[in-house]
Amino acid sequence: MSLKKYILDLRKRREKVQQGGGEKAIEKQTAMGKMTARERILALLDQDSFTEYDLFVEHEARDFGMDKKQLHGDGVIIGTGTIYGAPVCVFAQDFTVAGGSLGLMHARKITKIMDHALKMRVPLIGINDSGGARIQEGVNSLAGYGEIFYRNTIASGVIPQISVILGPCAGGAVYSPALTDFVFTVDKISKMFITGPNVIKTVLGEEISMEDLGGARVHAEITGNAHFFANSEAECFDQIKKLITFIPWNNKQKARAFPPKPPKGKTKIEDIIPSDPKNPYDVRDVIKAIVDDSDFFEIQELFAANIVIGFGRMNGETIGFVANQPLVLAGVLDTDSSDKAARFIRYCDAFNIPIITLEDMPGYLPGIDQEHAGVIRHGAKVLYAYSEATVPKITVILRKAYGGGYIAMNSRHLHADFMFAWPTAEIAVMGPEGAANIIFKKEIEEADDPEKMRQLKVQEYKEKFANPYVAAAKGYIDSVIEPDETRKMLLHALDVSVSKEDHRPEKKHGIPPF
Ligand code: HXC
User: Fold this and answer.
1) What residue numbers bound the domain in which 283 lies?
2) Is the same domain home to 214 and 279?
3) 144 within 8 A of 133, measured Cβ to Cβ
4) Does a structural domain hold residue 85?
5) Distance 196 CA to ligand 1 centre (A)
6) Whose CA is nearest to atom 33 of ligand 1?
7) What is the 131 CA–ligand 1 centroid distance (Å)?
8) Domain check: are 62 and 94 in the same one?
9) Does ligand 1 lie within 6 Å of residue 135's CB atom?
10) Are residues 209 and 307 in the same domain?
11) Measured between alpha carbons, how far apart are the two ends of the chain, in Å?
């Protein structure tokens, strides 16, 4: 055969495999508003940057008629490419090939690219569109998932791991994403469950649609399994690309720095904060008035909205923001918001991203539901995560900092590096109303006009404790600052923290509350 013939033969072979599950299956995929696995990779990566491996891998299963089935690429595409020039490893499951189900060779392709990502210390992006373990391959497919979970865990905190859910994902196809750092979903397309509605109906007699059981909205708003929610696959890929600009390639590097930019517009922070301390405001407006170009990239926007987390840049460098949101539940810490904040703090710490905390909250949420839902162990995660973190940690107390909330939100006592407070800060064991009712109970009850006396005592308490100056007098607060001095003070604090070293006793690992 001439060389030309060899090349033509290779091209033919490639073309055949690249058809995935064939025309009919692709039509079905497209009719559901879904891109094919190959289109997804090309849409996500820089143009012409994708290089594929293991195109010709075939399954070796022989049972249940599998010996007569050819599954192109064994239902998954793997390779390397770049996003805005940053190298990434990627895999995309192909639902048109046996529902993207995971057999032994399919798993081996995924573990190969995972090993590569870990060895090369670059981010891993997994596009999941799979019915989970391939039933016909029995224990081999379970073994395959086990190997993936093991690698997800070993790579955790070393390289960023990103999961994209773009189809009905069941079993292992959702447990692997749950072990990764960020999970992206698309409305009406993403579904996540450990087993689908059919099995639920058979085993439990319960009827529910796929969407109501585990649609994108369910996971973005209720379960917290998803970190991002998009209206289309194209929007989802834009979100992933943006995330990649904020995070480093691995835990030994810093995120790429961008040219510094001032915040947009001329918004004065003083104009954002209402004069009545009982009135709420959107803390995201404060963040936008502080960060470069007013560009704040929020994470888990729809879940536990009483806390806001996300990335912004200060002087061109990536910063993680954690902020109580007075607009929702007065910004309290509860089980979900504690989980959300703690995990993000640990992410930032693992990947060398300084943390800025903006505090305005009345404490942990009390109540039977919260106590029985384990607010003690969930809330403890925030204490653990801030105490454990060794990246630069800076706090600004905007208004309320009461009780456990004051300690938890990166206080000096958990070894914050810099503590700033606005003059509107109220730092105390609890709010003036509650405090006066307890400590002046007798005086109020015995007064001729109890309500007048109560008001007097509330005022007395406010003047004495509900301000930043008692804490400032003890050095717990480094500086009481004007709201519009915030960006300047933060930039300076970050500047003088670049060489921060904070060594901890040697240990295998800690045991954080779960
Ligand atoms: C083999 C599978 C499959 C699987 C889907 N297919 N899931 N083949 N093993 N796990 C095949 C179907 O047979 C079908 O093949 C094609 O993929 C498309 O599937 P449909 O059912 O027609 O699609 P749809 O109606 O959209 O439903 C998708 C689905 C459903 C919700 C994912 O297929 C489903 O419930 N699958 C089983 C899910 C599951 O329980 N998986 C095992 C999880 S256990 P044809 O040839 O007809 O096109 C697991 C172990 C790890 O993963 C545990 C972690 C701790």
Assistant:
1) 269-429+467-496
2) no
3) yes
4) yes
5) 9
6) 131
7) 4
8) yes
9) yes
10) no
11) 63
- Please tell me whether residues 84 and 215 are part of one structural domain: yes
Q: What is the ipTM of this complex?
A: 0.97
Element (H, E) at 78: strand 76-83
Binding site membership of 196 for ligand 1 (Cβ less than 6 Å): yes
Q: Is residue 355 part of a domain?
A: yes
CATH for 414: 3.90.226.10
Structure tokens at 89: 């490893």
Question: What's the Rg (C-alpha) of the chain?
Answer: 26
For 161-196, the three-class secondary structure string (H helix, E strand, C coil) is: EEEEECCEEECHHHHHHHCCCEEEEECCCCEEECCC
pLDDT over 70 percentage in the chain: 100
Cα(170) to ligand 1 centroid in Å equals 7
User: Per-residue pLDDT tens for 318-358?
Assistant: 999 999 999 999 999 999 999 999 999 999 999 999 999 99
Cα 393 to ligand 1 centre (Å): 46
Instruction: Establish whether residue 101 lines the binding site of ligand 1, counting it when its CB lies within 6 angstroms of any ligand atom.
Output: yes
335 domain-assigned: yes
- Protein residue with least CA distance to atom 30, ligand 1: 131
Q: Are residues 147 and 51 in the same domain?
A: yes
Residue nearest to ligand 1 atom 51, measured at CA: 172
